[in-house]
Amino acid sequence: MGILVENIVVYIAGWVIKKAIDQLRCEDCRISLVSDTSSESSVHYQAALKFLSMKNWSSKLHVPSDGVIAILLKAEQHLRDLSSMKYVNPKISLVRLQYLVLRDVDPDVLCLHSHVMDTAQGIDNHSYDLVRLLVKIYFNVRYYHVARLHTQKFQARSVRQKLNKLVLFKGQ
What's the predicted TM-score (pTM) here? Predict the structure, then answer.
């Protein structure tokens, strides 16, 4: 994956965090999603954070933690492996993507050491739930983007769409 794709994924991660925070009730989980901007915690993803730091001139954007970046980069990698940007692949499912990301990322990627043990219910805990939620939100964003590109490709051939104003106003 190139640096441009990584920068875009990190930029989208801020929006994914915003949506995830709205759905979460646990304060420890909310804190694990956002990076502490005062420290240099994102040492691994400095190159990917360049675009976000450039766009964050008003300091209102959410800066994702290293764990969120790792999760979303894995999700993007698997989406690119499973699909094509030219069409919407109906074989791609949210559950399959969540499984692939959970298989590939470290179980403690969001640094919720003791919180995971406190919230364990059977085989589920807040760490797995957070990964599933982040992948779900990211999957919806990317899936709708690919669907929109697919629709635009078909609409580009339509004469009515191309000459919309000319057709509506009859050349006046």
Answer: 0.76
Q: Count the residues in the chain.
A: 172
132, 140, 136: which is closest to 110 by C-alpha? 132
Residues 6+ apart with CB under 8 A from 67: 32, 109, 110, 111
Residue-wise burial string across 97-121, b where 16 or more C-beta atoms lie within 10 A, e elsewhere: bbebbbeebeeebbebeebbeebee
Maximum Cα interatomic distance, the chain, rounded to a whole number of Å: 70
pLDDT band at 38 (very low <50, low <70, confident <90, very high): very low
For residue 87, the cross-strand partners are 84
Cβ atoms 110, 33 nearer than 8 A: yes
pLDDT in tens, 66-111: 888 889 999 999 888 877 655 656 667 889 888 999 899 887 787 7
